[in-house]
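Quick start: read one record
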Amino acid sequence: MESGGESLLRSRNRAVNNLDGGSNPGRHPHGNGDNHITSNGKIEVEHVISKKLQLKRKAEGLKDDLLRQFESQVHDFMDSLIEESTSLESTPLPAAFSPPLSDKERSKLGHFQPPHGQGKHFISRRSLLDELFEVNHIRTIYHMFIALLILFILSTLVVDFLDEGRLVLDFDLLVYAFGQFPLVVCTWLCMFLSVLLVPYTLFHLWSQSQSGSHGQQRLFSWLFGSAFLLYQGLGLGFLPTYVVVTNSLPPASCFIVTLEQVRLIMKAHSFVRENVPRVLAWTKDKTGHGPVIPQVSQYLYFLFAPTLIYRGKYPRNPATRWGYVATKLLQVLGCLFYTYYVFVRLCIPQFRSISLQLFNLRAMVLCVFNSILPGVLVLLLGFFAFLHCWLNAFAEMLCFADRMFYKDWWNSTSYANYYRTWNVVVHDWLYYYVYRDFLLISQKRFRPAAMFFVFTVSAVVHEYILAVSFGFFYPVLFCLFMCFGSKGAIMYGAFTGVGQ
């Protein structure tokens, strides 16, 4: 009975409370104030929903801002790790390969390193193949290539004796490939002298004009900048190509002119790109008597140095080993004759037989697969002759101590890693002056677009060199760069958060 009375009392109290809430139309609930009660006792649902939607939009906006900030910080952190790994991964190997640096030598190397995150670090180090060839088992591969060259020479002698009855080696193809060589030398001298005089003079005049008023600075910057771009496009871009095309230079001579043309364009851009910010910093701070202008000797050394990144000073070796220089130049000559015999014994007979047949799918497939072996041999010979022997020879003559012209590309497991390690000299230029400058202009956004732009520039330049040298357009390298290279690099950057 008592429990039944208590339950009846509680139900009456609830009814009274409900009546009190409905009989006071002006009464508002206490608390957060989000629920408004109308005169008929209904809750304004629309008001509550709108409040919740506003809070949700604010939370989503805050989430997006936090994610963007976090992603930017992660990218900056990964970029800094890449900068530090440049010096860590290439430190001198201990014991059997090279002696460690002393504290005094390490302190000297600090003068050749730019501020953190602002450019390439140059340190004293040997080329990877020079270190690997000190191992007898690795040097065996070098001896195997020499034995294969001897077999090519013997094969050519035997075939010429059986077919034509003579034992004299004929180099008609080699003579044709390097035809009109005096014109090539004159063209190179004109290009080199113009690069030595025009960019340095324009930069010197522009830096002197920065001590005037702000309006004069902007006027002279626009004037000298336009003159430099006009020289790059017309003096180095159009005129050498015009000489090559109008005189119908043979393939090897075309390669010399076009490769030097591209190299000098990249050198001039690096010189201006590295020194203009220093003058602008002086213009802003006005510290000292005037802007620091590089000496002509520094610029001249850079034009011959085996690097595309300008520095006022580089790590230098104490002396030149002329025996080492002679060995590398002889190896370049040997690779040249090696390539000649590859074409004579493996390529020309195949192409001659294909040209006599009706072109169809079968003939094309046979031609492609029969060209794979000589193509790989020519690729390896080109790498060894230029990136190892030629650059090391010039580095030794100039006492240039940083010999990391390539990395262990033969251990690459992805196209992105292969393109970063195959040619470090060109990769550094693309990374610092194309990729990073693209991010600087876009305020570190559009990283996939920056990587795609890098591969586009590289592919276009490669196809330009091949098209001008061979006289026809066959975009195999362009497809390889744009399909496999850019796709692999963008996917790599998406998973790791780093760029090309």
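Residues 2-80 form one domain.
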